[in-house]
Amino acid sequence: MLREHYLGSGRDSARSGKTIQVWDPLVRLIHWGVVLMVVINAAIVAKDSQLHLWAGYTMLVLVGVRLLWGVIGTRPARFAAFPPNPFRALDYVKKMRRSDKTVHLSHNPLGALMVYNIWTTLLLIATTGYMMGTIRFFGVVWVERAHELAYDWLLVSIAAHILGVAFDIWRSGVPLVQAMIHGAKRIPNDTPVE
Fold first, then answer.
1. Which of the residues 33, 51, 57, 117 could staple to 45 if both were Cys, CB 3.0 to 4.6 A apart?
2. Is residue 19 situated within a structural domain?
3. What is the rounded distance in angstroms from the CA atom of residue 149 to the CA atom of residue 145?
4. How far apart are CA 191 and CA 108, in angstroms?
5. CATH number of the domain that 87 lies in?
């Protein structure tokens, strides 16, 4: 069940609103754990190091746990709360163009598509990375190329994700980064919630 409480008063309109607990500790741990593993593999360790492999395996386990949590976890973490639906995403874009500021407790429809995109990309990176370490696929060019292309796509997706979060913060007034740290979304007064 979602916990909700109200902040501020009429005199303090900048801080007034309601705060709704949305992201549970496991969702937040997995999110930031995946971020850390991607940073380690993208910017810190050499591609052929053991740490690169272990960071990749750790990332794979984190994504696997998150996928399981999407079935059995808390309501906002479940796939049913943010199904990948391009038609809902298009409708959401139309509503945004009409200045609709509805806040989604889980991911908004565009964010949902991005989440599934990133998970799929991470799984492709992990799969091709594992394949490159096997006797059958070691040195196979298409596997190495698929791994590199998936990594490049991940970087594009991360940039789009960050821009999307920044835009949504500007549009809605909901501090989303803080919500992924402490789990609660602070929603301004008079803002519709879905």
1. 51
2. no
3. 6
4. 14
5. 1.20.950
DSSP string across 101-130: -PBPSS--HHHHHHHHHHHHHHHHHHHHHH
pLDDT tens column, 70-110:
999 999 999 999 999 999 999 999 988 998 888 888 899 99
Q: How far is CA 173 from CA 168, 170, 176, in A?
A: 8, 6, 9
**Residue 192 domain-assigned (yes or no):** no
Residue whose token pair is 């040195």 = 139
Sign of the CA dihedral 67, 68, 72, 77? negative
Per-residue model confidence as pLDDT tens digits over 114-169: 999 999 999 999 999 999 999 999 999 999 999 999 999 999 999 999 999 999 99
The total domain count for the chain is 1
Q: In this structure, what DSSP letter does residue 42 have?
A: I
Alpha-carbon span 186 to 16, nearest angstrom: 9
Joined together, the tokens standing for residue 191 give 């803002």
Look at the chain and count its residues. 194
**Is 1 within the bounds of a domain?**
no
Q: Classify residue 86: in a domain, yes or no.
A: yes
List the domain range (segments joined by +) for residue 113: 26-183
**3 contacts 20 by C-beta, under 8 angstroms:** yes
Rounded distance, CA 37 to CA 53, Å? 10
Whether 3 and 182 have beta carbons less than 8 Å apart is answered as no
User: What is the distance, to the nearest Å, from the Cα of residue 147 to the centroid of all Cα atoms in its chain?
Assistant: 21
